[in-house]
Amino acid sequence: MDAESVIKEVLQQIRPTEEERAFIENLMRELEELAVETIEELGLDVKPYFVGSLAKDTYLAGDHDVDLFLAFPLETPLEELREKGLELGKAMAERLDSYEIAYAEHPYVRARYRGVSVDLVPCYDVKSWKDVRTAVDRSILHTEWVNENIRGKNDEVRLLKRFLKGINAYGSEIYVRGFSGYLAEILVIKYGSFLEVLEKADFILRQKIIDPGNWLKREYETAMNTVKREADEDRPLIVIDPVDPRRNVAANLGWERYGIFYFKAMKFLEEPSTKFFFPEKPRAGNYLDELRRKGTHLVVLAFEKPDLVDDLLLPQLERSARGFEKALEREGFRVFGWDYGYSGDKAFIMLELDRVERERVTIKPGPEFFTERGLDFYRKNERVWVRGKRLYAEKRVKENIVDVISELLEKNQVALGKGIREMIKLADVLADYAPKELEQSAYLFLSREKWNLK
């Protein structure tokens, strides 16, 4: 199939139907009427705004999350906005199907209505970037900017979003570090179409700075501060937010996710296929076969999944995996890779190592022999010798990786995620074995198929 045929086929699946559009329009109308009515009842000066992909008509078929922002006047004190905003959200949600309080920069209400998730978020009624007080305020400006500039390219955005989801590079959450929906919209508006964004994957990376709002001419100093700050952080892209020169829209985009996009874009242009948009499930395989093929070893730390949302749990698992890598390399093991995540109610950290046993002793370098510290080293160690000016000693160590990890944890010598530290200390530590529910995760990790790059 050529690219045009693939795109045509994909669009039939991702473009909302007329029925779906009618459902969404009715839903939004009902919610807006409810908002206006509740605002009047509570005697508040608040304007409701729809933001996000529904308001921009860049949503994918079947993806109907509603973002309804409740905008307070700029003179409202922040504490009052939080208090009254939550009160308003709850009063609205009482008339919907169900709700819960969620937390971001400030509390908001996450409700369900007619099978759809509805976020009711208090914010300030901003007209310019100079008015922005909280992280969510820009969303109103983002929606306005996209609607003013998209000029009928809505389906092109849908294609790019679905492509990014299919290659597992979508989502700006800290545990994903992929492309946000807003970034996808900006790229399509800037470069013209889904295919042109793919064709320019290399150019975009080399160009580095994208400035769709022309801030480098209009607000040079502010925009350059953003560029310098983000360049120092070594971001793959710097996309100056067209509504706020202080912000890089691609700040959360990591090199790994851009790398996946880079290669998948090239591959799609060479061999177009619907599989990029709707990938097959990863094939099952045997992790023990992978260990035999490579001659490496697997260590699994498995423990009960904490009751934390992904935004909190996954970054802490990642921090802990990195901590184990550093600690084990200090102990003389080579770490070829690590992975983390959860399956069902089991959270895990996996490490691929060169070995699971080491020598009974390690050589411990000491200070110069004629110093105070040298004398102290001499007295404290049993087998000591001099090489040049320095003292050396043998140090008895744990041999087996399970014992090594247990000792490291006992002595607090691994940098672990704060909220899961105690759970990791109670984890099962398994060498060259994965529990049944983690066998597929172990295979995908060891075979590198999890990253689905090639």
From TrEMBL:
Binding site for CTP: 53, 56, 142, 161, 170
Annotated InterPro entries: CAA_C, CCA-adding_arc, CCA_tRNA_nucleotrans_2, NT_2-5OAS_ClassI-CCAase, NT_sf, NuclTrfase_I-like_C, Polymerase_NTP_transf_dom, tRNA_NucTransf2
Residues binding ATP, per UniProt: 53, 56, 142, 161, 170
Residue sites binding Mg(2+) per the record: 65, 67, 119
Enzyme class: transferase
UniProt domain CCA-adding enzyme C-terminal: residue ranges: 294-426
Stretches assigned to the tRNA nucleotidyltransferase substrate binding domain: 155-278
GO MF annotation, one: CCA tRNA nucleotidyltransferase activity
Cofactor names: Mg(2+)
Keywords associated with the record: ATP-binding, Magnesium, Metal-binding, Nucleotide-binding, Nucleotidyltransferase, RNA repair, RNA-binding, Transferase, tRNA processing
Keyword Cell membrane carried by entry: no
Gene Ontology BP annotations: RNA repair; tRNA 3'-terminal CCA addition
Further comment found in the protein's record: A single active site specifically recognizes both ATP and CTP and is responsible for their addition.
Subunit structure, as described in the record: Homodimer.
PANTHER family named among the record's database cross-references: CCA-ADDING ENZYME
NCBIfam families listed in its UniProt record: cca_archaeal
Record-stated family: Belongs to the tRNA nucleotidyltransferase/poly(A) polymerase family. Archaeal CCA-adding enzyme subfamily.
Protein name: CCA-adding enzyme
Originating species: Thermococcus pacificus
